[in-house]
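name: query_chain
kind: protein
chains: 1
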Amino acid sequence: MYEFSDNCTKPMPLIGDNAPAFTARTTNGTVNFPDDYAGKWVILFSHPSDFTPICTTEFMTFQSMIDDFHKLNTEIIGLSVGTLTGHLAWIEAIRNLKFGDLHDIHITFPIIDDMTMSVARKYGMIHPHASDTATVRAVFIIDPNGVIRLILYYPASVGRNMDEIRRALIALQTSDKYHVSTPANWKPNDDVVAPAPATTAQMDARLNNRNRGLDVQAWFLTFRKLPKQKN
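structure:
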């Protein structure tokens, strides 16, 4: 449980929970979540405030990768405790900025107007010891069934690595498709980890079949290859 400055207490959503539902105004119109995104993966992320430097670089980077995410059947939704007019003004300002090789960036994903902090509170994005009024840099990856599959939190001073968010998304999709796990530093097309045996018979079978397309390091650690991915 976590407590807000107004003394209200709510449970923080966890991995495996259904994503809290909400209806909100956004820069792309009204969103009914998760119903409007049924059948799609979603990256819901928060930022402390509009017109802040780190948030600006994050938005530009997310937008530059939007086609990659769409190929992964994934939509992006941003959120901050800000007004719709403020979001629109910031979007317009971003068009004139340059960050590395990025320029002329037109933000196309929706940004939620959450001045009441109702959505931020449902998702545990307000951390009172950091700020009572600004969201931390939260990331929720939500699957096509509306279930939270990954949660990341960053402090206001640290920008997120969008390539890592994309890598984690692909890892989740790979695990679901092939019923495998992904090891440390895994990247698409790397070997994956086969499920560990659950019985003595399965353990003996694993150890006796070392050369059948598996890299058996130990009964509990076995790597296998997957078909090449186009990610």
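note: Residues 1-9 have pLDDT under 50 and may be disordered.
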